[in-house]
């Protein structure tokens, strides 16, 4: 129950960003799913602490020096890019 509270507490600002701030900015995320969607998925899949760490690591990877591309949330905790992503249909 407390875990769900913290998940919602962390997801709410990301959803606010997606709906209220992101539409005002030019698209800039180099990854699919976007960094904000990745953060939400990581928190839902791995819990609030590990998901937040994974989401922050993903934001740091989203820069002009890395190639970007398809990078879904991995099944196991990792702060590195998903090396073997499964293509979603």
TrEMBL record:
- Pfam annotation, one family: YidD
What is the role of the protein in this entry? Could be involved in insertion of integral membrane proteins into the membrane.
Q: Where in the cell is it found?
A: Cell membrane
Q: How does it sit in the membrane?
A: Peripheral membrane protein
Q: Which family does it belong to?
A: Belongs to the UPF0161 family.
Does Nucleotide-binding appear among the keywords? Answer: no
The protein's UniProt keywords, in alphabetical order, are: Cell membrane, Membrane
The molecule here is called Putative membrane protein insertion efficiency factor
NCBIfam families per UniProt? membrane protein insertion efficiency factor YidD
The record's GO CC annotations read:
plasma membrane
Which InterPro entries does this entry report, sorted A to Z?
Answer: Membr_insert_effic_factor_YidD
């Amino acid at each position: 129950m407390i875990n769900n509270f913290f998940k919602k507490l962390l997801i709410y600002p990301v959803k606010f960003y997606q709906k209220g701030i992101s539409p005002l900015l030019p698209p800039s995320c180099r990854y699919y799913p976007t960094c904000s969607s990745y953060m939400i998925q990581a928190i839902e899949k791995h819990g609030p602490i590990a998901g937040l760490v994974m989401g922050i690591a993903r934001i740091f990877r989203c820069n002009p020096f890395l190639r970007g591309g398809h990078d879904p949330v991995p099944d196991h905790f990792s702060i590195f890019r998903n090396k073997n992503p499964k293509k979603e249909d």
